[in-house]
Amino acid sequence: MLTVQQKLEHLRTLGIDGNLSEIEKMYEGKEFDIHDSEYKKLLELSKKYCIRFTELSSLISKAQTQEEKDAYNQEKNDILDKLFPGHGPIFGGGDGLYAIIGTVDLDGYNYINARVHFNASSLVHLEDYVFVASNVEFGTNNITSKLGKIKIGKDTWVGANVKFDDYANVGQRSVIGMGSHIVRSTNLAPNMISFGEPCREYKTISENYETLVKQPGREGKRTDDEIKHILAHLKELGIEGDFSQYIRAINYKKYNTLEPTISKIYELSHKLCSEYNSKDISIRRRKTILDALFPLQGKNLVMGNDIFVDCIGTVKIGNDVKIGNSPTLAGNITIGDNVKIGNNVALQTTGHEIYYKWRKITSDKNGSLCEISTPGYIIVFPELILADGTKVIPDQTLRRNTHKDETITHSR
User: What is the CATH number of domain 218-408?
Assistant: First the structure.
């Protein structure tokens, strides 16, 4: 983690080289002038880098040569270095990333998924081995004259769609449940599963805590023929290798999410989403991408803009389904016929081990990186309407319509 003076030197290398006294106060967590010209430059340059970071994913997906891909990937890494000076190893770094240069300290081995926003009101510190799922918000984008500190202790897993207010502290080795809201001045104890709106401690995580994988009903399971179809589809997309970990995932068994073949599937899925979300894409190409992402797909699928589909082939969609803008579809999901899904809806079924030691990134017997993930399920019955902002945690069977911004947690 850099000192304030080192961060100021970093800004000078980026061309922000005027009087940095107000930015210095900002980094120190003191009152500062939000109308300061150098601070305004900092905001504009940060926004420019973040927009470019997401644009590069689309360019990578369209690149014709490996040389082009390598150049774009290097530019993405350079942007991470600019946004997070002095950072340790970063895994992930998904599209939709937003951060203000120098306001986020990443100690190392941090995983950052899609649409993670480190907003302008906060100074954020993620210690070692903090995993951040998709759609997580740190602070607000309200310009404020004193930034609030948010600290996440090491070996913590932050679930999808979590919202942090300023002046929050999460103890080490914690798990924060999907859709939780950590309100201002909250201090969450270490070694706890915490969740809710507002977020509260729920259960102690002991050394012998066993993360169980639940099995869905018949509707949520894939037949042998469906699995064969998915694997043939993946090979048509150019994926080759050992599909054993992917098969474990869709059969509801713990799997190594960093195994080379399944990693390629995740990577291709994310690249296709980036291309789908790009500015100048044709309707025909978008349809081709949807067919690639959803090999188990019925007739007349309608999909909005700004999509995130975590892994090709894990989502089964029925006939005449309509999905709005900014959906998150992650893991084993079954959507019935004539379902209508609103905007900003998150269906998230993938997870990690609860006890922190089993979440560590290690090596498997073949020398590949290893991080064990836990598959879950979501089943959406036919004819349902999921309202805007609905969030569904893993292992749910939805049999009723949802309300706006509702978090579904007890539909088993």
Answer: 2.160.10.10
pLDDT in tens, 112-171: 999 999 999 999 999 999 999 999 999 998 999 999 999 999 999 999 999 999 999 999
**SS3 labels along 90-103:** EEECCCCCECCCCC
Q: Where are the domains of the chain?
A: 4-171, 218-408
Write the DSSP string, 138-168. ES-S---SSPEEEEE-TT-EEPTT-EE-SSE
pLDDT of residue 412: 46
In this prediction the pTM is 0.92
HSE of 362, CA atoms in CB hemisphere, 13 A: 10
Q: Which tokens belong to 29?
A: 């967590």
Whole-number pLDDT of residue 19: 98
The CATH number for 4-171, chosen from 2.160.10, 1.10.1240, 2.30.30, 3.20.20, is: 2.160.10
Task: Identify whether the C-beta of residue 329 lies closer than 8 Å to the C-beta of residue 373.
Answer: no
CB atoms within 10 A of CB 98: 21
Residue type, 166: D
Q: What is the SS3 assignment for 189-209?
A: CCCEEEECCCCEEEEECCCCC
* Beta strand pairing call for 200-204 and 192-195: antiparallel
Q: Burial, 178: exposed, middle or buried (Cβ in 10 Å; 0-12, 13-18, 19+)?
A: buried
CA distance 208 to 101: 40
Instruction: Show Cβ contacts of residue 303 under 8 Å, excluding neighbours closer than 6 positions.
Output: 286, 290, 323, 327
Polymer length of the chain: 412
pLDDT tens digits, one per residue of 328-358: 999 999 999 999 999 999 999 999 999 999 8
**Do the two domains 4-171 and 218-408 of this chain adopt the same fold?**
yes
